[in-house]
Amino acid sequence: MKRDIALEIVKKQMPEHRYLHTLGVMETAIGLANQNGVNETQAELAAIFHDYAKYRPKAEMEQLIRMKDMPAILLEFNSELWHAPVGAYLVEHEVGITDGAILNAIRYHTSGRVGMTKLEKVIYLADYIEPGRHFPGVDEVRELAKNDFDRALIQAVQNTIVFLMKKNQPIYPDTFHTYNDLVLNLQKKD
């Protein structure tokens, strides 16, 4: 699918500020993909569609989670997590993208998972560091991403966990497992 067509599709699904975020994620993902040997076309499409379901009604997302064999545990956690797996489902069934690598990058861009592919890591990190993001710690992760992709990703996940803990929010188990997996894999490399 060509970029302009994909962007036209997503623009109808979100308010202007989220569309601008999507453009930032797309450009950041393309840069990270080139820097880390990831397919640029897959990164571009996954980035464009990563928030496809973000503004769907919660009731619709809940129904899809229940009916389409998504992990029911999602419903026990903040609904901000829901748009990722629901988005992957909708991108496949409404847009017609069937590339499993792209769909998984969309599916895991909020929670991460054990054994993330490089493409999944690119979309997770691009969503975190895109230029429109402004919160404590993001500049540090942006700097790390220039030279150490793995450590930047670990720092992003760690920052997310600490942020949720400070707000007394429950943390989705896959996010903890993602952090542990990334740290253990980095230790094996060092």
Defining key terms:
about 190 residues, about 65% helix, mainly alpha, 10 helices
If you had to describe this structure to a student in words, what would you say it looks like?
The protein is an all-alpha fold and 190 residues long. It has a domain at 3-134: Hypothetical protein af1432. The chain is built from ten helices and no strands. The chain has helices at residues 3-11, 16-36, 40-49, 58-67, 83-95, 100-107, 118-129, 138-147, 149-166, 173-189. The longest helix has 21 residues, at 16-36. The mean pLDDT is 97.
Provide a short characterization of the protein structure.
With 190 residues, this protein is an all-alpha fold. It has helices spanning 3-11, 16-36, 40-49, 58-67, 83-95, 100-107, 118-129, 138-147, 149-166, 173-189.
Q: Could you describe the largest sheet, including whether it forms a barrel?
A: none
* Rg for CA atoms: 16 Å
Count of DSSP H/I helices: 10
Supply the CATH architecture of the domain at 3-134.
Answer: Orthogonal Bundle
Q: State the separation between the terminal residues, measured CA to CA.
A: 39 Å
Q: What is the CATH fold-level name of the domain at 3-134?
A: Hypothetical protein af1432
Determine and state the CATH class of the domain at 3-134.
Mainly Alpha
**Main structural class:** mainly alpha
CATH superfamily of the domain at 3-134: Hypothetical protein af1432
Q: Note poorly predicted spans.
A: none
**Percent helix range:** 55-70%
Q: How many strand units?
A: 0
The arrangement of helices and strands along the chain is HHHHHHHHHH
User: What does the overall shape look like?
Assistant: globular
